[in-house]
Amino acid sequence: MLIGELSRRTGVNPHQLRYYEAQGLLVPDRGDNGYREYDDGAVITVTQIRRLLDAGLSTQEIGYLQPCVSGAAPELKPCPETLDLLRARIAGLDEQIDTLVRSRETLREYLAATERRLAG
Fold this sequence. Notes:
The protein has helices at about 5-10, 15-20, 40-55, 60-65, 80-120; strands at about 30, 35, 70, 75. By secondary structure, the protein is mainly alpha-helical.
């Protein structure tokens, strides 16, 4: 199938599909006319990419994980690199959440103090 058909079947615009190709995540064949040609497996690959992006992984991380990915869900094989990357990503998210919680509490304190001065 050509890029337009892949785009229709996945709901991902051609510009993004070319970006995935540039990142090494999607590898089309080239026809004699130079057009990108994708097999049916490309639909599953794009679905995997989109779901992993939705999980917050970068395209670099997805490229690293691709050998351990199967199915559209996708399912991740328990490769050591998969576990290490997911654990590191979760630890990073936990740090960001902690920082945001502290920022929210500090802002609430500033707001409360400012409102007390206003009422005072």
